[in-house]
Amino acid sequence: MWSRRRIVGETVLAIVAALFGVLSVVDDGILPTVAVAVAAAAMSLLRRALPASVLVLAGALAGVLTGFWVLLMIAGWSAGPRIKAPRRALAAFAVSYVLYAGLSVLQEGAVLSVVPTLVFTTLAFLATTVVPGLAARYRTQRRTLMHALHEHNAQLLREREIIASHARLRERQRIAQDMHDSLGHQLALIAVHTGALEVDRTLTEGQREAVGVLREASVAAMHELREAVGILHDGTHAQERETEAATAARGVAGIDGLVQASRGAGAAVELRRAGETRTLAPAADHAAYRIVQEALTNALKHAPGAAIVVELRYEPDSLVVEVANGPVPVMAGGGRRHVVSGGQGLTGLEERARLVGGMVHAGTAAGGGFRVAGVLPYGSQPPHDGKDPGPVTTFVEATNDFRGQSEGVRLGDGGAVIDWSGPPEKQKELDLAMGRKKKGIAIGCGVALVIVVGLGALAVWGVAKLWDEGGKAMIEPSVYRSVKVGESETAVRDKLPDGKSFLTDGLRDKGPAKPKDATCLVLLSTEISDDLDDEPLFRFCFKDGKLIEKRSYTVKS
């Protein structure tokens, strides 16, 4: 459905094409004028649906009626981007040019000879039809390429959000497993102790019955907990669940083991503690362990050889866990290795800390290197007035991306994982499409450059040719007046050019009748007549070696 603006634009173009078309037949009567106007307007409106046909027909009509050159230019602009196949577009423009140039040469009463006519029609066709067509084709291909790039970028952003959301969900699964291990262990202890009390002979029947109910409740709660955790872990591999379960059983007490393991890997790691040791909730306890584990892993991966400091500060209201590494040492040869990373570990830490009421910050350190710090409350945050206090967290900006320490990785870049845009087949297809569009644009630019250079060369040659031909065929009126009848032919011809120019072709037989048995020389005047349709001429006729007549007259061009 066309918009109002497009309807107005098409109507204006159709009217303009019709007005210029009728200029060639305005003196031929009403019927030809109306027919030409209707044909030009109809072709202008049909050029989008039938670009090749309108281009060929406009070329033929422009060769017969000069007023159709505007329609030919419009058809060239429209056909350039709409004829998709390059070979078909080349064929349509070639046929249009042949018809335009051929019919222009065959026109009766043409002032110029065949070669000059072909030169000028070629220049006109290239400038008014081919160049607009190439410009429109390049413009359309560029817009299509930019649209595809925007779509690709939007897809990458959507996938980035999906991956970040997936990382948060996996972190929640780990937390669910931690809850299962912690609460499951406590419920198992309750079940064991209540089972022992149930057979204690010192208890009364009512007490044993109450203990039995308690044991059954703890066993049911443990089964329900395992079932809920199993649903949360649906789709994960058993081996991964076992690894997560083994990791989840660790807390602040396991940080010493992480430090020792890092030292065993050859890293210089220092562990510091400050403040009075406090007990954290199980989820927060494991969150502290995970912060240190992730930060050490990143430091070892992205900053090999750098000194690392792990610090646990027990503040009055929360535990501050901080892991900082120094600048990355320069490797031998001055290079630094490139590390591919998904970049979702920090996202998972943020989600884990947020769920326990804490926060995680990551960013570059003041003296170089990188720093990861987490603030974890000792107890869970109670709701205010029965309402959820909402998430308490900060999010890592692109400039705080840990992978910024690695060479060749831009800040905020998602690496190999974030830049994934679908299956390999889809990515290959997209790359091929982008390559074809870029190749088409490059070819179009090259062809346009060749045409522009060719037009410039032809224009320079044409100006030089016209200047030379004008010197052979034109004289000043003062020269005409200086020549006297009766002078010798040799003396007169020495004052005049030879007249052998295409500018005078077709003019020798026009004008008044020539004297009998005389040889005449027809030349153009350098003055321009008031009526542009009139061509002022000078004629000199010779007989028996003398000038017997000179005449000044005008002919219709």
In a few lines, what is going on in this structure?
This protein is of the alpha+beta class and 557 residues long. It has helices spanning 4-22, 30-46, 51-64, 69-82, 86-106, 114-198, 205-232, 238-248, 255-264, 282-302, 345-355, 415-418, 424-473, 477-482, 489-495; strands at 269-274, 308-314, 318-325, 359-364, 370-377, 474-475, 519-525, 534-543, 546-556.
Considering the chains and any ligands shown, give keywords for the structure.
557 residues; alpha+beta; five-stranded mixed sheet; 57% helix; elongated
Describe this structure in words.
This protein is of the alpha+beta class. It is 57% helix and 12% strand. The chain has a 5-stranded mixed β-sheet. It has a 4-stranded mixed β-sheet with strand order 6-7-8-9. A hairpin with an 8-residue loop joins strand 7 (519-525) and strand 8 (534-543). Helix 6 (114-198) packs across helix 8. The radius of gyration is 45 Å and the shape is elongated. The chain starts with a helix and ends with a strand. Residues 235-249, 337-342 and 380-423 have low confidence and may be disordered.
